[in-house]
Design goal:
The protein is of the alpha+beta class. The protein folds into 3 domains: 2-123, Adenine-n6-DNA-methyltransferase TaqI, Chain A, domain 2 (Alpha-Beta Complex), CATH 3.90.220; 146-170 and 332-373; 176-330, Adenine-n6-DNA-methyltransferase TaqI, Chain A, domain 2 (Alpha-Beta Complex), CATH 3.90.220.20. 35% of the residues lie in helices and 24% in strands. The chain has helices at 85-102, 113-117, 126-165, 228-233, 289-296, 299-308, 320-324, 333-372; strands at 2-4, 9-13, 27-30, 37-39, 44-52, 59-68, 72-77, 120-122, 177-179, 184-189, 205-208, 213-214, 217-218, 224-226, 244-247, 249-250, 262-264, 272-274, 278-283, 310-311, 316-317, 327-329. Strands 2-7-5-6-3-4 form a 6-stranded mixed beta sheet. The longest helix has 40 residues, at 126-165. The chain is globular, with a radius of gyration of 23 Å.
């Protein structure tokens, strides 16, 4: 039986401005970012599900004292005792994609309270809800564990890099430094075909957009395709094995800052292309791609890109001249190859962990579909 969320809950919003946070505060302060800030005082003491009402729409569960930003929705049980709040959290975590589709507005999208109260939730008895949460929580723990393993392996690569070469921007080991264009044979961005998404086909040449390029990985969950004719018209940005891709535009104030994310393309030559929001960097063979991508995806470069990017508060970009002038340290090629060999070994471990993660995620997704439809 499905029930409207508004019949089971009471929903309100926080009252505070985002700048009310305090670094030394003892209570969580929930805003629209995924990670809560801190605050010295609290206005709420309850068990609830929190939904970010604009920007990066996301869902959190909390039980205790806290405060909230004025665009954060606070969802509590209305006293009917028919709803187990962790069960609501898992439902909302799956429903968040629907909320993002319903979001309206200009640059910063937002949802209305009706988007929440009208949501239909499958409502078994409380004991069944608790059993569902128990199963989902166990699978989620496995997923979190695999993600933690991947983070540790990434940290291992970064630590080895710093041990061998130092921090690449401050360059404490005084390696020679060149502009990225001096070790590249091509730096360009792609194009969005005339007509945009109307040119996409169900299968064909993989067409990578900024949402596909993440830090050190390419995600194909939301990938588009173009036909061979369109691909040939865009031949200049046809990808080759070990080309480097960098996102050209995006935000810098989110957890996974979408501006300046970089990844190696490991597909076959000419099997993919890119749109206008992605840069292609093709190195000239004098420097190891694995070495350069480690530089571009490190924290030092994340800070550097934030410093040089241009644009408004909500969306920034890096232009082609800035990319061409990216400073790259150049230690001896033998050292680069030694590091590359180390990275390749760690990457093999990451592949195994990623496979286990994908399997756990597939199980979690199928259970969510079974329980919530």
């Amino acid at each position: 039986m499905k029930v409207k969320l508004g019949d089971l809950t009471k929903i309100k919003t926080g009252k505070l401005d985002a700048n009310a946070s305090s670094e030394d505060g003892q209570y969580p302060f929930f805003t629209c970012s995924r990670e809560p800030l801190k605050i010295a005082t609290y206005s709420y003491d309850c068990e609830c599900v929190l939904v970010a009402g604009n920007g990066d729409i996301n869902v959190k569960y909390y039980n205790g004292k806290f405060d909230a930003y004025q665009r954060t929705y606070i969802i509590e049980d209305n006293g009917s005792r028919k709803l187990y709040m962790p069960y609501l959290y898992y439902f909302m975590d799956g429903y968040v994609e629907e909320l993002r589709k319903k979001a309206i507005g200009g640059v910063i999208k937002y949802i209305k309270i009706g988007n929440l109260t009208d949501a239909l939730i499958e409502l078994p008895d409380i004991e069944t809800q608790k059993a569902v949460v128990n199963i989902l929580a166990k699978v989620k723990d496995i997923i979190d564990g695999r993600n933690e393993e991947l983070q540790k392996l990434d940290t291992l690569i970064k630590a080895r890099f710093v041990e061998m070469f130092g921090e690449p921007i401050s360059n404490p080991m005084r390696w020679p430094v060149v502009a990225l264009k001096e070790v590249s044979e091509l730096i360009t961005n792609g194009n969005t075909p005339k007509g945009g998404s109307e040119n996409y086909v169900t299968e064909g040449i993989t067409f990578l957009r900024s949402q596909n390029v993440w830090r050190n990985r390419i995600e194909l969950d939301d990938v588009a395709f173009i036909d061979e004719e369109t691909h040939q018209r865009m031949k200049k940005s046809s990808l080759r094995y070990k080309d480097i891709l960098i996102t050209k535009t995006g935000r810098i104030n989110t957890e996974n800052s979408s501006l300046g994310r970089a990844a190696l393309f490991l597909g076959e030559n000419d099997s993919a292309n890119i749109n206008g929001h992605v840069y292609l960097i093709r190195l000239d063979g004098s420097i190891a791609p694995e070495f350069v991508i480690t530089i571009l995806t490190g924290e030092a470069y994340k800070r550097y890109i934030r410093k040089v990017c241009v644009g408004g508060i909500d969306k920034r970009q890096i232009n082609v001249n800035q990319v061409e002038d990216f400073p790259i340290i150049v230690p001896p090629i033998d050292m680069q190859r030694e590091f590359t060999a180390f990275r390749e070994q760690v990457d093999k471990s990451k592949v195994a962990v990623q496979k286990a993660l994908d399997e756990a995620q597939l199980l979690f997704d199928s259970l969510m579909q079974e329980y919530f439809g």
